Amino acid sequence: MALLKALREAPRLLREQPILFVPMAIFAVLQTPQLFLETLDPMVSIVGSLLLTGLFVFVTPVFYAGAIGMANDAAAGTPTSLGRFWSHAKEFYVSVLIAYLFITAVTFGFGFAVSIGILVAFVTVGVGGGGLPLMLGVGGVIALIVLAFLIALFAVHFYAHAIVIEGKGAVDGLSRSVHVVRHNLKSVVGYGLLSLVFGAVFGGVFVLVSAFAFPSASAPGEPAPMPDPLPALLGSGASIVGTALFATFFVVFSVVFYRALVGVDGEPSQAGAETVDHGSDSFDSPNPTE
Q1: For residues 101 and 114, is the Cβ–Cβ distance under 8 A?
Q2: How confident is the model at residue 263 (pLDDT cuts 50, 70, 90)?
Q3: Distance (Å, rounded) from C-alpha 189 to C-alpha 170?
């Protein structure tokens, strides 16, 4: 089973090549300033959040491409390094960036459209006096639309893996991800559920640490009080370590899982060299990995 193989292999690869933790640790350090934004004036906090969000739209694909490339090296039995990280990042950055921008734009547009739709729907129901049954019906329809979108979003989850591991372009990476997911539903559902559990646990711990280290605003519109130096330092350190551990494990786990699904085990990826292309024809007679 691809899922069990990924769970077995990921810890081994991390033990053998601990350099894999470094890129995600750097990424976590770069995100640390966001923890302090809530302690500033609300307007400054909003502007700062927008600026950092815009910056990370272009920074994140660097770490996606480089970290996936390093994990692919390790999974293929090839020693990796930060130099390899940079080689992968340079080679695949543009393709990963284009696909990432597309997904981000679609997600933002969908979220905005749903927000407007919810507002219009419930105002219309309220004015028309449809009552509770109609409101529940409208809410159910909106929930189904959101669920369908989340499923579609998960279908392109492996776009960066397809780009880095199989040498696809931005558009082909998105379509390849859909193809792989569609032909390996059983394994991918298990992967998704496991990822959801891991993410929920990590998210819960992160929220608790943030609440301990960075106090909330005392009143709406008021900046939060400045955090005490020691809790803030400990909270920031815990956030960096936790993010590095979780993100690195998840990247390596997902790479091993994807390699098992598309059948590229044992074929090392060389940045700048010809990449093995397992095109969609290999799934014409699918035999999904369970």
Answers
A1: no
A2: confident
A3: 24
Report long-range pairs for 227-236 (Cβ below 8 Å, ≥24 apart): 227/36, 227/39, 232/35, 232/36, 235/35, 235/209, 235/210, 236/32, 236/35
pLDDT band at 120 (very low <50, low <70, confident <90, very high): confident
Backbone φ/ψ region at 168: left (φ over 0), alpha (ψ -120 to 50), beta:
beta
- Residue 192 and residue 257 in contact, taking contact as beta carbons nearer than 8 Å: no
Which residue reads 């989850």 in tokens?
Answer: 157
pLDDT in tens, 102-111: 999 999 999 8
Rg (CA), the chain: 21
Give me the helix-helix angle, 42-75 and 229-262, nearest 10°.
40
Per-residue pLDDT averaged across 181-203, rounded? 90
Where exactly are the structural domains of the chain?
2-283
| pLDDT tens digits, one per residue of 28-61 | 999 888 877 776 777 777 888 889 888 999 999 9
* Cα–Cα dist 32/218, whole Å: 23
